Amino acid sequence: MRLTLRGVVARLADAPRWLVGVIVVLVFAVPPLFEIPRAQFLDKLEAIAYDIRLKLTQSRETDPQIVIINIDERTMGALEELAEDVLKNDRAYRAALEYLRPRLDYDKQFAQALATAPTVLGFSFTPEPQEVGVLPAPVFTARDLGENRIPIDSQAGYVASLPVLQRAATDAGHIDPLFDPDNVMRRAPLIKEYKGAYYGTLALALARIAVDAKQVVPHFDSNHDLDHLDVGGLILPVSKEGNALIPYPGPKKQFRYVSATDILDGSAPKELLEGTIAIVGTDAKGLADLRATPMAPDYPGVEIHASLLSGMLNGNLKSVPAGVSQTEGVIMLVAGLLAIFAVPWRRPVLSLLGIVVVTAMVIALNLWFWQKQAAVLPIAATLAMMLILLLLNLLTGFLRESRAIARLSSMFGEYVPPERVAQMRESGERFTLEGESREMTVLFSDVRDFTAVSEHLPPLELSQMMSAYLTALTEVIHGERGTIDKYIGDAIMAFWGAPLDSTTHARDAVATALAMQHRMQSVRAEFRTRGWPEFQIGVGLNTGLMNVGDMGSQFRKAYTVLGDAVNLASRLEALTKLYGVPILVGDATRRAAPEFIYREIDRVRVKGRAQTLTIYEPLGSTLEDAGRARLAHWHEALALYRAREFAQAARMFSAFAAEEPGERLYTLFKERCEAYVEAILPADWDGAASYGSK
Length: 694
Description:
Low-confidence stretches: none
């Protein structure tokens, strides 16, 4: 079976989101739970995470117990100047030097100086078998371990101080570095093994002298793994290999420095050195004692020893606790399951926020262990897992959203615009094509005298004209969140309130009808320039309970509305031509959309309905004073008509007709009044007009 990226993505979208998430969590959590080696890139990320925590929590405090005597560039320059300039041409000095040289014992003099105070020398182990100088006494031997073992390689050789110097010194410690895979020094080997004996690092030897510890006692846990070293009451946590994390207090120059030149010429203040541990070293680049550390890529080696010693004396050494892998695995499981089952993944913003909160909890817990327990727990793999879960949530959400929108588009895209489909999806509602009953508003529009308009146009031009007309009005309907039901020749049927439920369906429908009539002005102007006939449209609206859904036969179905309220809207559209008004709405629509100003047109009885219906023309949301006065006069005339004051009403309708010649509405009521003046009307006459056909 051939797998492609598209196929993998499709399967990912089809699979249960929780199942994919659980698999991701297990992929990350199982290795630490069962101590299975994991990918190297996670170790690199962990090193970066360690460095960030170290930098964020560095104390930046100067330890007053430690001073560094620095063989700096100034010292090197002074010695070079003395040898090459001041004394080079001094004949008396050179003659005395040649005379005394055979009698001088530099090593003996240096040993005598070392013996005047507690001193610690440095030495190094070598990968080659050699024994140069003499080693100090070991801190303990393999015999002291009993049945316990420390899993470190035995050293091949060493380069140490001369016997005369080592005997004069108080102790010695190795100065060997320990580099991580990225060549950065984060740890130091507190002990190394050579021929069954264990030797401490320089900082360990200095700490022993500082606390007057007679011995170094290794302590092991229940698994016989080295846990910590006891140095005269100082508890130094170490790994099972005897390595300690270096507690760098800050960037370079965090310790007090005094130039070796000032020591040699006696200008260094005595109070600077009194009661301190002085470590001789160099930060001169020419002497190549610079190391890459989390603090800087060129950190002086002498400050590394000082940082380790300061951490020992102040109890600032952090440890990697036993069972840390299992702890990491449990944290991963808890955080991962929270992200999968507690985060509302269906909403991208809430999903992002939820995973950020869970991640923040993981970071806070990790920093609590770091700061309060001096324990270093891995965090990079957990953060990587949380990032993948976030991306998984976003990806699967996007894929499923796309599929849901595609499904909705296949169902409703023919009736509503794409942005409406997206809104339907965002609403979180469940949409179906199955029939249901809702209160909605339906609209019918039709071209007046379409036969006369179309009969003089060639078929192609007629098609182009209708396409332009229907497109323009459909844009208006979509702009007011309407759903296109169908086109019936030159007629348009649309509705509001489905598929997305709306409490403003009547308002939106009336606004659409007004906007359609306004849009027709620009449509007619465009048709005029193209030589096409100009025409008027009538629009009928009604609000009421309707059946909406996918209806039809096995051969053809459509998402449409049915019901008496729908039929009434169609009849209202037909009446617009009779009354000569652009829009007619039923009383239910007027009551549901009170934001607009309406002109009452008439009371009617239409085919299929026994009860009287009052019909209205929406005029807009505002009217000028003149318009409001004219509207009041109209309603006054209508009231006279209903009160059977036909002569007086006829005079008012005639005045309206004279002001607006050609308006069918005024002529219609004028003719009615003139006919009713001499007529004998029944006692129950209510002024309603009856129409037996559409």
